[in-house]
Amino acid sequence: MMDKFTPGYEDTCFFSPRTPAVRQDCINRVHMKSAKKKIADSLERSIGLEISTIGDSTFERAVNSRMKALGIAEVDAYAEKFSASTAELRRLVEEVVIPETWFFRDQIPFTLLGEHVMKADKFRQRYVFRILSLPCATGEEPYSIAMTLLQAGLPPSRFYIDAVDVSERVLALARRAVYRENSFRSGDLDFRQRFFHKTDKGFELDKTVREKVHFLKGNILHPAFMEGLGRYDVVFCRNVLIYFSKEAQQQAISTLYHILMPGGLLLTGHAESGLFFGDRFVAAARPKAFAFYKKESAAAAAARQEEVPDDTGEDSLPEPSLPAGGKPTPVFRRPAAKPAGKDEEFSLVRQLADEGKLEEAARRSEKYLLEHDPSAKWYYLLGVIRDSEGQSAEALKLFRKAVYLDPGHIESLQQLALLAERAGDRAGAANYKRRAKRLQEGG
Ligand SMILES: C[S@@+](CC[C@H](N)C(=O)[O-])C[C@H]1O[C@@H](n2cnc3c(N)ncnc32)[C@H](O)[C@@H]1O
Predict the structure, then answer these.
(1) How far is residue 232's CA from residue 332's CA, in Å, rounded to a whole number?
(2) Domain closes at, from 254, 284, 303
(3) Closest-CA residue to 73 (of 64, 83, 86, 85)
(4) Which of 195, 216, 245, 427 minimizes the number of CB atoms within 10 Å of its CB?
(5) What are the residue ranges of helices labelled H in 308-409?
């Protein structure tokens, strides 16, 4: 690679006047350009960012700000530090991301979401919808999703929202859930009356909405992004692909395709919807929603039809599909079969959990465990219930007991991986995932 000591390097400044000072300045600029290019390439590989979308001056300001913070004067010294340190990559990412967002941005996608879920809900009385907001930035989007569903009358126990962003800084703000006027740019602010209260720091969101959203750090382009996540009925992926290079866009679209249930609803940004026309998604017939449904195979559609009581015959929207599992959901998502035989009590308790009757489900599980021999599946069941109630420490103990009793209990290993991840224990999470994967592969 050419550097300033490479013979011929200075000839790259051939067109500059050959006075020593101007010539030196030219060499410095060429040098700086190549160091910045290295940094830009690395950002593109890591988070997909194509620098031209944010502009050179924004990028340079970000690099300069990091150099200043580190007391580094030369850009090539910074480039060296940057390439040797993932922590520095993370810090620069924080400087370059654009977390622009507001409540009920574009409005119509949220109207469609409410209609989609409520229409599907008629068929699946015990179904728990899984929704992903990716990227969620400072939280306005996932909280708008939660408010939409609560306003539509869906009980809180019937949906679950994961919200993911690559930036730790924006996630911290999202979890704090206190907002200023700038976040309220939609016309109708009735929702603010209903779900916020004013404090001297801003508008604070009520707990009922906050606790429906589970924030996670994640990079949509990371190879392990999908590990540990289940599949979602609805995915909001808006206003991020516009910042990506073409390759990164294609990679992200593949991930979105895999993470969405067949028939699931995908909401994109208005400048991004053009990327989704093709053979994997079908555009929703709703102007300004920028929405698509994931195509499903005829076999999958037929299998789903068999499961769903077609009691009205009027539904034309794809219904929520059944999950691939792997995530702590507040309830078990496959509608419980009619209780029968020796598993009657187990089915009944799952059903109670499905219906959001967590207290009763937990009480019955504990009673069963007191009166019978220890059982991995019962510990697992109670673990999921406790986790849904927000009792992660208790859930952890229960999943561990399940694995102690049955080291091949894949679901418990997956739940342990998720709990470890949430606690920031990446090594622990990776270990549980490895064990679960080995078992899944029959090892
Ligand atoms: C403009 S905001 C979009 C927020 C929201 N979806 C909306 O439309 O209002 C873009 C967000 O994308 C996040 N982001 C950028 N690259 C990402 C990546 N590779 N993976 C996950 N999030 C990313 C940024 O941190 C930023 O918060």
Answers:
(1) 14
(2) 303
(3) 64
(4) 427
(5) 344-354, 358-371, 376-388, 392-405
* Residue 141 lies inside a defined structural domain of this protein: yes
Dist. CA 218–CA 226, nearest whole Å: 9
186 domain residue, yes or no: yes
Total domains present in the chain: 3
Index of the ligand 1 atom closest to the CA of residue 167: 25
Kindly report the backbone phi and psi dihedral angles of residue 132, in degrees, each rounded to the nearest multiple of 5, phi listed first: -120, 130
Give yes or no for residue 349 having a pLDDT over 90.
no
Q: CA 408 to CA 436: how far, in whole Å?
A: 8
Range of the domain at 34: 9-96
Distances (CA, A) of 59 to 39, 81, 378: 10, 17, 53
User: pLDDT (tens digit, 9 = 90+) per residue, 239-253?
Assistant: 999 999 999 999 999
Q: For residue 46, give the ligand 1 atom closest to its CA.
A: 19
In the reported structure, the alpha carbon of residue 61 is separated from the centroid of ligand 1 by a whole-number distance in angstroms of 20
Find the mean pLDDT for residues 379-391.
85
Q: What is the mean pLDDT of residues 137-161?
A: 95
**Of 136-145, 227-236, 256-265, 295-304, which range is least confident?**
295-304
| Residues 91 and 62 sit within 8 Å (Cβ to Cβ) | no
φ/ψ of residue 421, rounded to 5: -60, -45
Pocket lining: 267 vs ligand 1, CB cutoff 6 Å:
no
CA of 240 to the centre of ligand 1 (A): 5
- Round to the nearest angstrom and report the end-to-end CA distance of the chain: 46
Q: Could you tell me the CATH number of the domain that includes residue 133?
A: 3.40.50.150
